[in-house]
Design a protein that fits this description.
The complex is a heterodimer. In chain A, helix 11 packs antiparallel against helix 13. Chain A is mainly α. Chain A contains 33 helices and two strands. Chain A has a domain of 94 residues: Up-down Bundle (Transcription Elongation Factor S-II, Chain A), CATH 1.20.930. Chain B has a domain of 217 residues: 7 Propeller (Methylamine Dehydrogenase, Chain H), CATH 2.130.10. In chain B, the strands form seven sheets. A four-stranded antiparallel β-sheet of chain B has the order 2-29-28-27. In chain B, a hairpin with a 3-residue loop joins strand 16 and strand 17. Chain B starts with a strand and ends in a 6-residue tail after the last strand.
Chain lengths: 674, 318
């Protein structure tokens, strides 16, 4: 046996070995094989390693090729490979030294094969794996050009489908896994502590990562610890070591790969029979030397792993996972479109907002029990009659009729009420009314410079007609007379005189149609936009120079009629028409009431005012001189009144008029002066 | 039936006897029927709720979700109302409660209607809008009867006799028109002091026609003499300025003025003296936007989003 000192001449080594080798470098006989193995185990491996490193450093290509050729034929096992970093060195040679590339590649292939056989071979999953490995072999051929070497197990791990792994897992679990492992662990620690765990660690590494450098690092430095941990956890759980687990698939797989691995490997080490491995590794060419090796040592080749990219085979590109669908769980997701969801979101927001609004503390409480409310008894002098005003409403009548023929809407509960009332019936409107523009309501009093006496005349006629039932012909006559009067008297004063005359006539007629009185009043008082001017006009005694009362008329008739003559359209003048509506004949014709010319009114009923609401009560407290002047007072009092609110006075006069005859006289100061 | 004198003591004794939480938004208008037996409220939530004042119950609910409801008012028939719209357009609508059907639309305003008032004696009604117009209508015709371009925000109301209507323009002027000859222009114009910068939101005549009440979205209520425009009283109500309009109302005898406040109280003043008669705690959760006194019965209602009916305690036995 040759014991080589470190740093010895390589040629000496070769020479020493030459006796064992044939001419082509092959081992001469079985005897020689044993000797070689002894050489390796006895320290030759270390020496070779050292030489290899030195040769690499000195870039001695010749020496490198020699050493490599030795390495190629040396029988190795995983244990031996673990000693020193021959694997790494050889691998780096592939990259850096083109001269020895081929040899180094071959060596790596052999070693990898050995490692794989020792660690990754499993009977249970072999059929599946082998198929994949064949596929991988094809890939490998293509990749060899790029010096990408095969990592046997990573491939199978990656491609393992979930179904496969579960199946395998189940199968493996049925096997008595734990005992062999523990046995093996003991053996390992007892006999060859540094080398044994490597198989496990390497396997684990390959199952989890593709990186060969990582695997190497594992195998060189921390392999022992890892292996122990892996074994412990395997023993405990029967599953993959937790620190390497990253996904469920990976977790289950190593557990199967680890346990059969030990079962398989140990027999091969302790016994010469290596049938399981053989059957497994028939496709590998590196099996042959192993078979030829001794019973004690199993020659293993180890290879360094490189990063590689593999693709899943066609059927594995698609992966199906089946879930049991709970019909209720996705109901919200499926049944609503985006817009529905948007709407729901909006409604929810709104509801939240509403709630927020009501979070303002609503602590309203009913403080007394409900009872039927009492009627109000109005204090004396306070408008008890106010709500008793007579209402003239055609629509009221129309609605009553409607309700007799139209069924009432029946409603049973609040949420059954329709969201909208029914739309109105289409009305066939006369085209004339529909196209009619509304009358403009002026913002300022309309100046009336052009006194329309014909209208005044006609009003006279109608007033006369009211009282004396003048035939229309006579009314026309008076009208035309009035108009001719206007044409002759073109000056203001002339017109005014004419109007005064007309006013007198009207007055005499008792304002049969009071509706026109205010208009006449307008004419009496020329209107100017300038209020001051108007004011002056009104104050001019000239315009009030007509009798306000007439002996023929009951005084209450006249109450309120005076002022309109000097004011203008003051409410006082309006008492008349309303009386007509209340007392007199039928209401005016349907349709928008047009001012004036409401033709046939019912006969005037002299006793009207007696039935009217006693306005004395309402205005009873007002009194006095001022009112006296407003009502039937003599003209001079008009003159005497202060004029800063002439219109107000006028209106008051109107009210007083409605109030009836006793408005004058005995009253105290008006409300607003108190 | 028992009668009760309306005086300071009785009005102080008003208490909340019913609270209705029918609406989920502000109540924007309330009106009693002429006989005081029904109360109708319109709300921003597009519902119309009718209450029975004698029983203290809700009588009916109607929705007008398409058009919205505001300024609801009874017409002279007990079963018809007019209201303005808050959606679609600014048409005024005439609704029959009997068969829940619109009877007529009054189309003309181009912006939101801000006041709507039914003549107390006739089928006429007047409306004003943010389009700066005042329109006079007649229930019998969908056509506008009178139109005023007010050059500013306007509010309008009829006097209790239905003879006059008053238009408040630009929060400065009050113009009085004769209903029958409105085309001649106002017979009276009151120019009010401009010291109060605020928008008028409502104008009402007292029941006796002698006073005009103007309320605003400021913190001021003004009481005018309706004959000469004198500013009789000013009442400052609200604790702070709020942008919403708080209604003020007369009692039917014109003796008191009621107004809600932003903090849920009800303030009552005497119109003769200007003194504050009472501050009633209603505990309304938000500003009391509607307040009205029943024209016949000793009953007041106040409304924010809730509607509260106030009656006097002393009539329990009745």
């Amino acid at each position: 046996m040759v014991h080589m000192a470190s740093g010895g001449d390589p040629r000496a080594l070769l020479n020493a070995l030459s006796s064992m080798l044939g001419t082509s470098g092959c081992i001469k006989s079985a005897q020689e094989v044993v000797r070689i193995i002894r050489f390796v185990t006895a320290g030759g491996w270390e020496v070779l390693n050292k030489w290899l490193n030195e040769a690499k450093e000195s870039n001695d290509t010749c020496l490198l090729s020699k050493i490599l050729s030795v390495l190629k034929y040396l029988p190795v096992s995983v244990n031996i490979l673990k000693q020193g970093n021959a694997g790494k060195t050889v691998k780096s040679l592939i990259k850096h030294t083109p001269e020895v590339k081929d040899v180094a590649t071959d060596i790596l292939e052999q070693w990898k094969e050995v490692v794989r056989k020792e660690t990754g071979v499993q009977d249970t999953v072999s059929s599946m794996k082998r198929k994949k490995e064949k596929l991988e072999d094809d890939n490998e051929l293509a990749k060899k050009a790029r010096n990408v070497t095969k990592v046997p197990n990573s491939n199978s791990v990656k491609l393992e489908s979930p179904n496969d792994s579960t199946i395998n897992n189940n199968q493996i679990r049925k096997q008595p896994v734990k005992v062999p492992i523990s046995n093996k662990a003991k053996i390992m620690t007892a006999n060859i502590p540094p080398t044994k765990p490597k198989s496990t660690a390497a396997t684990l590494a390959t199952t989890i990562t593709d990186s060969s450098s990582f695997m190497d690092a594992l195998s060189v430095s921390v392999s022992k610890k890892r292996a122990k941990k892996a074994q412990l956890s395997t023993i405990k759980s029967g599953q993959l070591p937790s620190q390497t687990a990253t996904s469920p698939v990976d977790k289950t797989f190593p557990s199967q790969s680890v346990s059969p691995d030990h079962e398989v490997n140990f027999p091969t080490i302790s016994e010469p029979t290596i049938q399981p491995i053989q059957s497994e590794a028939t496709v590998e060419k590196t099996v042959d030397p192993v078979d030829q090796l001794s019973n004690n040592m199993k020659p293993v080749k180890i290879g360094k792993k490189k990063k590689r990219v593999t693709w899943a085979s066609e059927p594995n590109l698609t992966r199906f996972r089946y879930f049991e669908l709970d019909e209720s769980e996705r109901v919200n997701v499926r049944s609503h479109s985006f817009h529905d969801a948007q709407y729901m979101e909006m409604m929810r927001e709104r509801q939240t907002l509403q709630n927020a609004k009501f979070q303002v503390v609503d602590n309203m409480k009913e403080t007394i029990a409900w009872s039927k409310p009492a009627l109000i008894e109005f204090a004396s002098g306070r408008g008890g009659q106010i709500t008793d005003r007579r209402v003239h409403s055609d629509e009221c009548v129309a609605q009553e009729k409607r309700e007799q023929t139209v069924l009432a809407e029946i409603f049973f509960s609040k949420d059954r009420v329709s969201d909208n009332p029914a739309e109105p019936d289409l009305e066939d409107l006369p085209s004339t009314t529909s196209s009619k523009d509304p009358t403009v309501i002026p913002l300022i009093p309309v100046p009336d410079p052009d006194l329309d006496l014909s209208e005044a005349g006609s009003s006279l006629a109608s007033t006369d007609a009211g009282r004396y039932s003048l035939p229309p012909e006579i009314a026309d006559l008076i009208t035309s007379a009035a108009s001719s009067l206007r044409t002759h008297g073109s000056s203001d004063t002339g017109a005014a005189k004419a109007v005064q005359l007309a006013a007198k006539m009207m007055h005499t007629g008792g304002y049969q149609d009071e509706q026109y009185a205010p208009e006449l009043g307008d004419r009496v008082t020329p209107q100017y936009e300038d209020e001051e001017l108007n004011h002056e006009f009104e104050e001019d005694p000239h315009y009030y120079n007509y009798p306000h009362d007439h002996p023929d008329q009951p005084p209450d008739r006249f109450v309120g009629h005076g002022p309109p003559m000097r004011g203008k359209r003051f409410p006082g003048a309006r008492g008349g028409p309303r009386m007509h509506h209340w007392r007199g004949g039928p209401p005016g014709p349907e349709g928008p009431p047009v001012r004036g010319m409401n033709p046939p009114r019912g006969p005037r009923m002299p006793a009207d005012h007696l039935d009217r609401p006693p306005f004395e009560d309402e205005y009873g407290s007002y009194p006095n001189e001022e009112f006296a002047s407003i009502g039937p007072a003599p003209v001079p009092s008009h003159r005497g009144r202060g004029g800063h609110h002439p219109r107000g006075r006028g209106r008051r006069g109107g009210r007083g008029g409605r109030g009836g005859g006793d408005a004058g006289g005995t009253k105290t100061a008006p409300y607003y002066l108190r | 039936m028992k009668k009760m004198l309306l005086n300071e003591d009785t009005i102080r004794s008003l208490r909340v006897a019913k609270i209705f939480r029918e609406n989920n938004d502000k109540i924007n208008a309330a009106d009693f029927s002429k006989n005081g037996e029904l109360l109708i409220c319109s709300s921003q939530d597009d519902s119309i709720v009718i209450y029975d004042c004698l029983k203290g119950t809700t009588k009916r609910t109607i929705y007008s979700k398409k058009y919205g409801v505001d300024h609801i008012q009874f017409t002279h028939a007990p079963n018809t109302v007019i209201h303005s719209s808050s959606k679609v357009d600014d048409t005024i609508r005439y609704l029959s409660l009997h068969d829940n059907k619109y009877l007529r639309y009054f189309n003309g305003h181009t912006k939101r209607v801000v006041s709507l008032n039914m003549s107390p004696t006739e089928d006429k009604f007047i409306s004003t809008s943010l389009d700066h117009t005042v329109r006079l209508w007649d229930l019998r015709s969908p056509n506008c009867q009178g139109l005023m371009h007010a050059n500013g925000r306007a509010i309008a109301s009829f006097d209790p006799d239905g003879l006059i209507f008053a238009v408040g323009i630009n929060s400065q002027q009050v113009k009085l028109y004769d209903v029958r000859s409105f085309d001649k222009g106002p017979f009276s114009t009151f120019q009010l002091s401009e010291e109060h910068l605020r928008d008028w939101t409502g104008l009402k005549f007292s029941g006796d026609g002698k006073m005009i009440l103007i309320y605003s979205n400021g913190n001021f209520i003004q009481l005018l003499d309706s004959f000469n425009g004198d500013e009789l009283r000013n009442f400052s109500v609200h604790i702070f300025y709020i942008a919403v309009s708080l209604e003020a109302s007369f009692t039917p005898d014109s003796q008191f003025i009621l107004s809600g406040s932003a903090d849920g109280q009800v303030h009552i003043w005497n119109t003769d003296t200007g003194d504050k008669v009472a501050v009633l705690q209603g505990h309304h959760p938000s500003a009391v936007q509607c307040i009205k006194f029943n024209p016949k019965y000793m009953m007041m209602i106040s409304a924010c989003t809730n509607t509260a009916i106030w009656i006097t305690e002393s009539n329990e036995e009745g």
